[in-house]
């Protein structure tokens, strides 16, 4: 392919089209008219010798060739953006940048107050958008540039994803302080005889307890939740127990309303980590936010 025939605007438009999967929305993203984007799509099809995007329902669907191209083109555009970003000086006090962070509600509860307070002091113009994604989708979103950071534990990812430890933690069992089980050591047999509140935000959440139980063991689970933060109030008003982060247990148990016991299932301690894509390693704003998040969480230790 003759690179002189490749206009950078074509690649920018391709990225917008495969992201939006709609000519009108892509035109709005690019700040162009719909006919102009339709013309660019025709040029892209001629350039790559493939339809790239075909009609599907009310929008467009990428062809196999488009799916092959999307990541290399995004990487190429990111490198170009880095060239121009490197020329800019970053001042957190005046920055108006926005960052998308993947967090679960337990991470929000534990970490966001400290992070938000630090941002308010040091970078009042920076905004954070928090969203939740299951682990596999989190890695895909980091690779696709759909999110800037992720806070999670034990993500399985490619070499392109970087991470740093924010906090160490472990899961514990909480129950009412006057619960009959609080009067004795919590053995595995006694644990399995209890009624459990289970938190399942995605299919990967079985890694926390179920995969560590003996093959023939099964918990009694009358209530399953999509969020962690509801568990303590439910435990407080029922005879059920719940497994939550020790750091979360310490925070909600300031008044001594709960008995906190080790989980008798052989779980190891784990680390909450901050994840990002390697393409952002040297980007000044991204690096500054990473360091702020790390400082804010280390202050919680």
Average of per-residue pLDDT values: 90
Radius of gyration: 24 Å
CATH architecture of the largest domain: 3-Layer(aba) Sandwich
CATH topology group of the largest domain: D-Maltodextrin-Binding Protein, domain 2
Extended strand count: 12
- Biggest sheet strand order reads 4-3-5-12-6
Report the biggest beta sheet as strand number plus sense, adding barrel if it closes.
5 strands, mixed
- How many helices? 10
Q: Provide the structure class.
A: alpha/beta
SSE blueprint:
Blueprint: H1 8-20, H2 23-30, H3 34-48, E1 53-56, E2 59-62, H4 64-85, E3 98-102, H5 105-122, E4 127-131, H6 135-144, E5 149-152, E6 161-169, E7 171-176, H7 188-192, E8 195-199, E9 220-225, H8 231-237, E10 241-245, H9 246-252, E11 258-262, E12 270-277, H10 284-298
Parallel strand pairs: 3-4, 3-5, 8-9, 8-10
Antiparallel strand pairs: 1-2, 5-12, 6-12, 7-10, 7-11
What features would you highlight for this structure?
301 residues; alpha/beta; Arc Repressor Mutant, subunit A; D-Maltodextrin-Binding Protein, domain 2; 5-stranded mixed sheet; 22% strand
Task: Tell me what the structure shows.
The protein has 301 residues and is of the alpha/beta class. The chain folds into three domains: 3-85, Arc Repressor Mutant, subunit A (Orthogonal Bundle); 98-167 and 271-298, Periplasmic binding protein-like II (D-Maltodextrin-Binding Protein, domain 2); 171-267, 3-Layer(aba) Sandwich (D-Maltodextrin-Binding Protein, domain 2), CATH 3.40.190.10. 40% of the residues lie in helices and 22% in strands. The chain has ten helices and twelve strands. The protein has helices at residues 8-20, 23-30, 34-48, 64-85, 105-122, 135-144, 188-192, 231-237, 246-252, 284-298, and strands at residues 53-56, 59-62, 98-102, 127-131, 149-152, 161-169, 171-176, 195-199, 220-225, 241-245, 258-262, 270-277. Strands 4-3-5-12-6 form a five-stranded mixed β-sheet, with helices on both faces. Helix 1 packs across helix 3 (34-48). The radius of gyration is 24 Å and the shape is elongated. The mean pLDDT is 90.
